[in-house]
Amino acid sequence: MASETNANAQTIQAAQTTVPAVHVSQLVKRYGDMVALDYFDLDVQQGEIFGLLGPNGSGKTTAINCILALLTYDKGTIRVFGEPMTPTSYALKRRIGIVPQNVAVFNELTVTENIDYFCSLYVPKKADRAPLVEEAIEFAGLQDFRKFRPGKLSGGLLRRLNIACGIAHKPDLIFFDEPTVAVDPQSRNAILEGIQKLNKAGATVIYTSHYMEEVEQICDRILIMDHGRHLALGTADELKAMIDTGERITIETLDLTDETLAAVRALAFVIEASYDGRELDVRCRRGEHNLVDLIGVLRTSGANIGHLTSRPPSLNDVFLELTGKALRD
C-alpha cells in the first residue's frame, strides 16, 4: 500500500511539471444579485484523483458546469489541458467524460445500445466503437446484462451502466458527481475500485461525494469550498492538521448529572459535549491530556464509566469547522 501511495505521489509530482488538467483562476459567476462563484480558484494536476467538496449550494455544480462550458461566467479564466475552454472547444470536449449524479440513460435501449449511443457522441464510426463498447461493458461488470433494459437493472447495476456510458470513449479527464448515491456496499466498492483503475490507466478524475470515507479512500488531494469560495486544499491529513478540532471522545455512562455535564462543558479544551442518557460525546480541541482530564471530572463526580472510545479528527470535522455545517446539510 505504501509503495502504491509513493508511486502515485511521484506520478502527481511529475505531472505538476506539465500543464494542469484543469486550471480555474478568479472565476466569478452571478445569478442576478446572488454570487454563485466568488473569485474561485482551482488547479487539478494531470494524473490525480481530485476531490471537490462542499455543502449543498456551495457552488460545486456551478463550477463544474463552467469548466465544461455549459454555463457562461462573468469573470475569470478556465483552461483544460492548457487550452481555453469554450462552448466550441470540441477537441477538448472529446477528451472529457461525465458521470452525472442523476442516472442519464435511455430506458428504451439495452445496456449495449446505451453505451454504444453515448460512445457515438465522441466516436462516429461503429467499427471503431465496437471494441470500446465491449471494453466498457467488461469494465463495469455488465457482461451478463448486455440485453437488459435499464428498468430491469438493480440500483447498483444502473450506476455501473451510467459510468460505462460516461467512460466508453476513453476520456483523459473524468468528472464523477456522486456516483455511489443509493447503492449497496458491494456496488460501491466496485465503483470505487473502477475509478482507481481508470486513474491508474492514465485518466485524471474530479470526484464529488457526500461520503467522506470515499473521498479519504481514493482522493489524492481535496478542495473544500463554500459560498463559491476556495476554503482549503490539501491531502486528507493536511486538511485535518489545519483545524483546531482534535479528538472526539465517547464514553458510556448511565448516571451523568446535569451538573457533571456542565463541568465537562466548562473544560477549556471542550468544543461541544452532548449526553443522550447513555453516551457522553465530547468534541475536543487539540491537546495532550484531554482524555485524562475528562475522566478526572467524571470520576470526581462519581459517574460510572463504561466503554470508551477516542478517535482523531475526521474530514467531516474539518468540514464542520471550516463551513459551520456538516457536508450532508
From TrEMBL:
Keywords: ATP-binding, Nucleotide-binding, Transport. Residues 22-252 form the ABC transporter domain. Gene3D superfamilies: P-loop containing nucleotide triphosphate hydrolases (3.40.50.300). GO terms for molecular function: ATP binding; ATP hydrolysis activity. InterPro entries: AAA+_ATPase, ABC_transporter-like_ATP-bd, DrrA1/2-like_C, P-loop_NTPase. It holds the Pfam family DrrA1-3_C. This is ABC transporter ATP-binding protein.
